[in-house]
Each structure stands twice: as C-alpha cells, then as structure tokens.
C-alpha cells in the first residue's frame, strides 16, 4: 500500500478565469511544479500508480467557487503526473479519470495570509481499504455510470 501526504505554503492562482499573461502562468506553474516535486521527492512510489485516489485541500480566508477551486489545483496535479520528457518518475501515470477517478477537492477556512495547500495520494488498494472502513462506495467511473443509469431509469421524463 502506498500513501503520500504533503503540504505547500501559499496559494496557486485561481485558474482559467485569471487572464494572466502566458509567461506569468508558465513561471507560476513552474514554481508550483518544483514545490510539489520537492515535497514528495523522497516518498515516490517504486513505479507510478496506475490507479490512485487524489485529495487536494485549499486553505484560504475566502471561499471560492467549485470550478475555480478545481482550476487552482491544475499545477499541483500536473506536477504529480509521470513526465517522460523531463524524466520525472511521478506519483501517478496520468491525471485523467482512468487513473484518478474523480479527485476530491476541498476548501477549508484559514486565517488571512495563512493560505496553503494539502494533498494526499493513495494507491487503489489503500483507497479501497479506506472506503471499506468508512462504509462508502469507491468513486470510480463504473460506480458513477451505474448511478447515472439508475437515475435515468427512475426519471419518468427521460426517454
């Protein structure tokens, strides 16, 4: 079983709606990539995970909308991904739904100027054990598709 937790001081920009110059975006993303990789460097899995659970939490003084919350985590997700171009072994193979399912994004209240990010990555075995201990169904694509099929079958307006 593999699990890694990390904490990063500061807050990434709010993503797509910030309308920043591409050079500034690249510079900020590079800084976050270096910070994330440094935070997990000694704790990488023996090989990048094929399936994992990702939980990212933003601690800030002001609550933000869900789409901006997800967008703000993009440089962190990208930094954890396997990158053959730079020879970074990565924590997980790809940051898509087949590998991560639906990541969990959270926001928590923090004092002003005390913003930070925490993250947790679990391999599939550790994630399933945690779901079983909490009595929850895993958040995988097949389970989500089953839920949607049940909802469509129960909806009399759907044809």
> Helical proportion?
25-40%
**Residue fraction in strands:** 15-25%
CATH class category label? Alpha Beta
Q: Mind telling me the CATH superfamily name?
A: Holliday junction resolvase RusA
What is the overall pLDDT average? Answer: 82
Total E-strand runs: 4
Low-confidence regions = none
Give the second-level CATH assignment, the architecture.
Answer: 2-Layer Sandwich
Total tally of structural domains:
1
Decide which structural class fits the backbone: alpha+beta
- How many strands, what sense, and barrel or not for the largest sheet? 4 strands, mixed
Q: Describe the strand arrangement of the main beta sheet, using strand numbers.
A: 1-4-2-3
Number of helices: 6
Instruction: Output the CATH topology.
Output: 60s Ribosomal Protein L30, Chain: A
**SSE succession:** EHEHHHEEHH
Global outline: globular
Distance between the termini: 44 Å
């Amino acid at each position: 079983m593999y699990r890694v937790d990390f904490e990063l001081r500061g807050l990434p920009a709010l993503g797509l709606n910030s309308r920043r110059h591409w050079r500034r975006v690249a510079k900020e993303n590079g800084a976050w990539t270096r910070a994330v990789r440094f935070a997990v460097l000694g704790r990488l899995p023996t090989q990048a995970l094929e399936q994992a659970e990702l939980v990212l939490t933003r601690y800030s003084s002001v609550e933000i909308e869900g789409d901006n919350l997800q967008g703000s985590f993009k440089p962190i997700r990208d930094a954890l991904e396997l990158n053959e171009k730079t020879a970074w072994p990565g924590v997980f193979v790809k940051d898509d739904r087949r590998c991560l399912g639906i990541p969990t994004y959270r926001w928590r209240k923090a004092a002003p100027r005390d913003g930070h990010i925490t993250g947790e990555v679990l391999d599939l075995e550790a994630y399933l054990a945690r779901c079983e201990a909490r009595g929850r169904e895993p958040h995988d694509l097949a389970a989500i598709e089953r839920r949607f099929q049940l909802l469509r079958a129960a909806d009399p307006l759907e044809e």
